[in-house]
Amino acid sequence: MGAGSLTLGAAATTLSTPLGEPQFHWTMVTTWPRNFPGLGTGANRLAESIVAMSGGRIAISVHGAGDLVPAYDVFEAVSKGKADMGHGSAIYWKDKSPAIPFFSSIPFGMTASQANGWLYHGGGLDLWTEVYDPFGLIPMPVGNTGIQMGGWFNKEIRTTADFDGLKMRIPGLGAEVLARAGGHPIDLPGKALLGALKDGSLDAAEWVGPYNDLAFGLYKAAKYYYYPSWQEPATVMEAIINRRSYEALSPDLQAIVMHACKAANQDMLAEYSARNPVALQTLVSRFGVELRRFPDAVIDRLRSLSAKVLEERVSKDELAARVHASYRKFQLQSLEWAAIDDATRSMRDGLL
Amino acid sequence: MGAGSLTLGAAATTLSTPLGEPQFHWTMVTTWPRNFPGLGTGANRLAESIVAMSGGRIAISVHGAGDLVPAYDVFEAVSKGKADMGHGSAIYWKDKSPAIPFFSSIPFGMTASQANGWLYHGGGLDLWTEVYDPFGLIPMPVGNTGIQMGGWFNKEIRTTADFDGLKMRIPGLGAEVLARAGGHPIDLPGKALLGALKDGSLDAAEWVGPYNDLAFGLYKAAKYYYYPSWQEPATVMEAIINRRSYEALSPDLQAIVMHACKAANQDMLAEYSARNPVALQTLVSRFGVELRRFPDAVIDRLRSLSAKVLEERVSKDELAARVHASYRKFQLQSLEWAAIDDATRSMRDGLL
């Protein structure tokens, strides 16, 4: 364990431990800085809930990015059993399998509530389980950032030509789309973004949304804050569990781990729902950030490029094609209901 | 136990029971017909998860409305220890305390994701706990229907005058608002609605949304399906736990019950997100239901009546006033973020 780890196993000793000392000592690695708001603290709470519900039979040490393994090595580390569990997002593993990005967020994809509907009650999680199975990993949705933002820019985006040569931090399929639009996508872990924006190695960067972007201080290096997030409308976070570690647990402990993931999924989205609005107000009124909306023509162009990127990605892989078909069917059948949802939301400012 | 109960305690014997036979035999009463889609099945899954995570140390028998106690006696039954746990919605107990309706849904109130943000990370659950404390009850949010519908009507609503003398099933504060608009609100449990619409004791009825309304066959007795739901934009379901029953549990079992509630909260909303869209398609394309939107002038009038009803309700009760202030503050500070959320949703039909 690195010096930077948060050892929740220690906390477990203060809990009632009906079965005595810990039977399992789990290691959790994450793609986030330790205790990072929402993402890191959500991973901590996931671990705490497993420790508490197991009465201390499972102890868990939680590691931030770069502690035990670098952020982007989390998938590999859990797959190989170097850690028992990981917390991150499928968006970082898109090169492991063509189907993977659907389980995080794809350009012009689902909202958070649609994604949860698809995953838990629309066949999505079964497909995800199938996709991760060859890696010895069991996936669970654990957190969703909700609506994201389009990113931080120091110049206005008026036409797609403004993307020409733009060095922008953007991961996942959004990166491939940006490249086709003429930009230079660069993938960096969140922690590196402020420095890279300041020293000019990045012209623009997207991270998450107000709550997380404020925490990294991105407003210090860019003036315009663009929406909507065409690239990640709402992104699913994941827990990945090493299958052997999981199978070593008794059925009640397995149930505890799985339900802890579902509770943490609820909790993290709720945290974003509460914190994003306040952080946005802070960014605008205290730090003078200027909100900008991408022009419709830019969105239209990105949409058509996204469709091509997606089509090429799934066309040569049977499993990816099946995942895409399931995802698309869910989105399509939700259209009419989504219109009623919108009509209801439009009343929102009524009673204030 | 009535013959209609679903005894999950029996299922527990098939699970790993590291601590032997059940230590606790809990009774759960619900306001729903047994196994009713989403609400009843969600209550079942909540019980199942507690049984599984506890390794069978807690056994739970789940009762539908009218089995052990009538639907609207659930609060009283758990408060008095006749049952250990209940599943229903705070909307049914508005006469117990002026503050209660804020924990289900109020006219022109929060969306599901805002409600969860407020409850878990905006102080809402602390207030709810305070409000239920004198009744010996511990509340937890367990499920949210998401966006609801405005209800079923056999005549079109063109102006507020069309509410004159209208006998409509509608619970909660919406009922008080309808009365001020000239209607006759009638509160009936969901199970009674189809019969009452058919025999003319009701002219109109609102229940939940497409998934649940289809299950009760309400389309058989009314032609027009109105939106938006001004009266319950998105309604929180609750678990209520008898405090003495809860305090008898060891800390790990307490943690299991609480996290089971949070996981079930996530799961139920996801189910509605998946099932409502499909049910709406069925209602419209198979059963010829006609969707109608309330005219803006009607919504405006109901909004102003709602503000009055709410103000009068909270003005004479210190705790209700505090709850209202907290709720309102959360809604207000979410306005700017909600506009960005809307802008992102408007891209939704992009990639289909």
From TrEMBL, chains A, B:
Keyword field: Metal-binding, Signal
Gene Ontology annotations of biological process type: transmembrane transport
Record GO terms (molecular function): metal ion binding
Taxonomic superkingdom: Bacteria
Any one Gene Ontology cellular component term annotated for this protein: tripartite ATP-independent periplasmic transporter complex
Pfam families: DctP
Residues binding Na(+): W207
Signal peptide: none
Annotated positions binding substrate: Q148, R169, E206, E232
Keyword match Lipoprotein: no
PANTHER family: EXTRACYTOPLASMIC SOLUTE RECEPTOR PROTEIN, PTHR33376
Protein name: Extracellular solute-binding protein, family 7
Lineage: Bacteria, Pseudomonadati, Pseudomonadota, Gammaproteobacteria, Chromatiales
